[in-house]
Every structure is written in structure tokens, then in C-alpha cells.
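Posted in: Structural Biology > Protein-Ligand Complexes

Title: Requesting predicted complex, phosphoenolpyruvate in pocket

I'd be grateful if someone could produce the C-alpha cells for the following input. Sequence and ligand are given below.
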Amino acid sequence: MARKPFIAGNWKMNMTAESGKELIAQLKPLVKDTRYNVALCVPAILIPAMVKAAKGSKIKIGAQNVHWAEKGAYTGEISCEQLKEYGVKYAIIGHSERRQYFGETDEGVNKRTLAAIANGITPIVCVGETLEERENGQTEKVLDKQLKDGLNGIEDITKVVIAYEPVWAIGTGKTATPEQAQETIAYIRKKIGKLFDKRSANKVIIQYGGSMNAKNCFDLMEQPDIDGGLIGGASLTTEFAKVVNYLQD
Ligand code: PEP
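-- Reply #1 --
Done. Output follows.
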């Protein structure tokens, strides 16, 4: 069965309840005919209001992280139960900004990912190399470790969405070329096949992320192994709908 494209926005630390509601109201009619899965991963404090705003539409609301513990002394963190209470379907895990600025490790990514799956939340696990790592020819080695350690112990890998986000392309306006993105994502799929099994690897949704926008999304998503995108900047305006509708326009 063909993989169903999945376009997810990452609002990062942007938007307010007011501007978020306004944007979702504008997006709803624009994406109503999409055949793809669509989500917006919003700041935690906006989740209740955005779930309400997106009700009855194709847009599902996701979180930008989730903690592995059921509850307890983890100041600043959010549990699966707290997300589920609002019907949150997705959680980004291991975004490079979390790794870079907040010290998140592959081991933590793994615990968060396992907890999300156990709670019926689809984890969007981010992997990707820095510019230095790419220039030093270490891309595959970096991805191997992120995938092996981050996805350790998962029983059904098809429950995970992977976002390949080269760190040098995030928020920089420098997109990976479609060929670069395809080549690396094909590598990721092959590696998942080795870590799990080939059949499952062929079913895993793998997004590209890094300065994807309405102009470049077609060429990226046309690649055989790219199943959608994780969109930062372009998810903050109605440009997001253009990305969602890329094949239908
Ligand atoms: C991201 O935040 O995951 C991302 C890809 O950001 P941008 O699209 O702005 O590069």
C-alpha cells in the first residue's frame, strides 16, 4: 500500500491563542479537500485552544515534545496523559533545537518515543546532521546513531514518523536539494530496514524538514522516499495550505 503523505507544521515558540485561532480559521477551508494527513504542532500552552479551533477540520493538533514519565517532579515537562486529555495525536520528539539548546540526547528521545507509542500518540522523531558533520562525511554515522539509539526497543516501527531535518537547513532558507534529501531519506529507510525489517521500513512515513515552503515543496515531495514535510516558518501563515495542497493545485 502506498504511503500516505503527512504534512506537519511546527510553530515552535510562535503564535498566541488569538493569532493561532485566526490562522487555523483561515487554513480550515483551504485544506478541507486534502487527501493527506495534516497536523500543526503548537506550543503546549496553546493546545486546548487550537484543538478547539481545529475541531471538525482535517487539521490535527500535535505537541512539540512529550515526557516519558506518567507524572511527577519534572518541572516544565508534559505527560502523555496530559496531551491525550485534549486528543493530541502527534508529538515532535528530538527536534534539533531541543538537542542543541536543551541538551536532549538519543536516550531521552528513545524514552519519550516509547512512552508516546504506548499512549497512542504518534511520535515524529527528528534526526539530522549538522553542516560540519555533513562536510566531514559523517552524515551516515550520525544518522546511524540517532536511529539505533533513538528507536531502540520499538516493537512496531510503523507507529513512528521520522523527520529527516538536516540541521543546516532548518530556519536558514537553505533547503537540501531534492536529490540530497532523497538520497539521505533512502539511506534512513534502508537503515530502518536493517534495524527492524524491510517490509516495515517500506511503510514508515519519512518527512523532510528544513526550509520547506510552497515554492520548493513539489520537487522535494516528488521524490520517491519523501512522504511529506515538517514545516517550520512556512507553517506560520496560510502558505502552509499551499504546501498541503502541493499536488492538488
Ligand atoms: C522545523 O522547525 O522543523 C523546520 C524545518 O523549520 P523551517 O521550516 O523553518 O526550516
